[in-house]
């Protein structure tokens, strides 16, 4: 059936031990795609996702795992008659951009999977090289977050990393810098400053080595113009030129994720119906805080395919 929904794809943080296993067991198409991923990567991603325990939270496992789970779900939905190529638009949160570009026909499954595996490895390595993390500022706006990040930057790398939804801004950087941010947060009206359980300072200059590795890998990959509108986190607006897409993908690991801006662009264009295929319902939660009038339909469990 023809879609009237926009497809939005989750990023790192949506993972959990066992993700995708219910789809693998319920649908041969999902099983085939997971097995194909194992072959492309040369190791048992399925084992890591289904039985890996805490290992599934490692950046180099979580990223290909979330991508493959979302792709498997979309493959099942497509097999059930949902025309993915007629989606009104697509966007993904950070890592989710690679899934969105696969949906849009810009990247092959194999290329996207290899890229997200390399991206995860490179970000893990950069995190280990520069001790860093991320802090969510609950109740902060951009101006407050930028002021706190500037204070933190006196002790090391520190910048705004995610603008997810109203009242939820994330800063990223070296540990000493985040200590300063957190110690001054309440003085600037922040309700809560919460250190996130992530490997490192994603979407900051802490990730520059990862961006460089990713740029080199992207130079070897064929990227096509998207068949449906694709909105990038880097600008919060659509991009269709393959060269610009490649540039944004490389820069994205060091740039702020403009998710709220991306969704406001979509809403401004009349997109009010969204499909979130993947583990969890993170993006549905964010959308409730961006615009309660929008509808996000989850496809997180096999029974959700029956209503596709």
Automatic annotation (TrEMBL):
This is Malonyl CoA-acyl carrier protein transacylase. Belongs to the fabD family. It catalyses: holo-[ACP] + malonyl-CoA = malonyl-[ACP] + CoA. The active site is at 94, 203. One of its GO terms (molecular function) is [acyl-carrier-protein] S-malonyltransferase activity. Keywords: Acyltransferase, Transferase. It is an enzyme of class 2 (transferase). The keyword Acyltransferase applies. Its EC number is 2.3.1.39. Residues 8-299 form the Malonyl-CoA:ACP transacylase (MAT) domain. Pfam families: Acyl_transf_1 (PF00698).
């Amino acid at each position: 059936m023809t879609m009237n929904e926009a497809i939005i794809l989750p990023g790192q943080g949506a993972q959990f031990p066992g993700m995708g296993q219910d789809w693998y067991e319920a649908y041969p198409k999902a099983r085939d795609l997971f097995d194909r991923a194992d072959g492309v990567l040369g190791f048992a991603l399925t084992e890591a996702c289904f039985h890996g325990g805490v290992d599934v939270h490692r950046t180099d496992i979580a990223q290909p795992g979330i991508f493959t789970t979302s792709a498997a779900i979309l493959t099942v939905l497509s097999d059930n008659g949902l025309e993915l190529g007629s989606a009104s638009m697509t966007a993904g949160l950070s890592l989710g951009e690679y899934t969105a570009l696969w949906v849009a026909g810009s990247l092959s499954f194999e290329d996207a999977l290899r890229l997200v595996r390399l991206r995860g490895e490179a970000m893990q390595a950069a995190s280990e090289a520069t001790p860093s993390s991320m802090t969510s500022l609950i109740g902060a706006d951009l101006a407050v977050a930028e002021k706190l990040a500037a204070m933190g930057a006196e002790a090391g790398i520190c910048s705004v990393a995610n603008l997810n939804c109203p009242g939820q801004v994330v800063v990223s950087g070296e540990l000493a810098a985040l200590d300063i941010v957190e110690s001054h947060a309440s003085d600037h009206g922040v309700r809560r400053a919460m250190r996130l359980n992530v490997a490192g300072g994603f979407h900051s200059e802490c990730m520059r080595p990862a961006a460089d590795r990713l740029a080199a890998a992207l130079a070897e990959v064929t990227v096509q113009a998207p068949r449906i509108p694709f909105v990038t986190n880097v600008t919060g607006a659509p991009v269709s030129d393959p060269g610009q897409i490649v540039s944004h993908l490389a820069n994205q690991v060091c740039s702020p994720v403009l998710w709220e801006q991306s969704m406001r662009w979509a809403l401004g264009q009349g997109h009010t119906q969204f499909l979130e295929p993947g583990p969890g319902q993170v993006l549905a939660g964010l959308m409730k805080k961006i615009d309660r009038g929008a509808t996000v339909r989850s496809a997180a469990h096999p029974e959700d395919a029956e209503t596709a």
